[in-house]
Write a structure and sequence with these properties.
By secondary structure, the chain is an all-alpha fold. Helix content is about 55%, strand content about 0%. Helix 1 runs antiparallel to helix 3, helix 1 crosses helix 7 and helix 4 runs antiparallel to helix 6. The longest helix is centred in the first third of the chain and has 27 residues.
Length: about 250
Amino acid sequence: MERFLHEWVGVFQFQFTALLVIGSIEAVTARSKIGLMNRAWGIWPWLIYLPLQTAFLTGFWIIIPASGLKPLGLNFGEAVVGVATVILVKDLGFYLYHRAQHRWLWRWHATHHSIEHMTALNSYNHWSEILIWNFLVTLPFYLLIEGGTARNFFVALLIGWQVTFIHSDTKLHLGPLGNWIIDNRFHRIHHSTDPKHFDKNFGVLFSFWDRILGTAYIPDKGEWPEVGVAGLPEARSLRQWSNVPWRMPG
């Protein structure tokens, strides 16, 4: 129980604080005319997602050490260079995982893309992606990079807030810098219903990997496309949200 509470506090602090702060800013600087009910619906998937993530991490930190599995434990240092290296390595990992979601795991990831009223709060995923994410991302990084450092805490905080920001419906953005450090305009292209935007802008923190690997699309000034998935309406109940992988078109 102590381990569970520890993880719950950590998960809650990271995600809920980001949702609260960025969601509040978004409410004042909203770009789209989205009704309160459509903005607020996303809280229900989060109320399931956060406890599931907590339960998984609790089991993860109990089972993995007890299994005798020894991490490689690369330590890039706590200085600026070390932090920057960990950020770039994790950003590449997220980029590659995101590409995999669209190629092999789309049935589950489509839940996230089916969102038609995309906001900070409506940035949820399907509950099954918690398991997929932790096995394909959390575990490899645990085995690769030394954990429990101030550096890793900072990187986790940065990424947690960034993921919320890039889905937000706020008029605030990073201007020209947003073409390099990903902002909500750059990432919205990734969710676009326009075919010219398909399979573009997979990155989370920086556009480096999209640029290097040929998936970057630099939005024009004021470009703010409609989002969603053709033939797959956004879930309007927890049952619909849970059943998305089995009601995919085609």
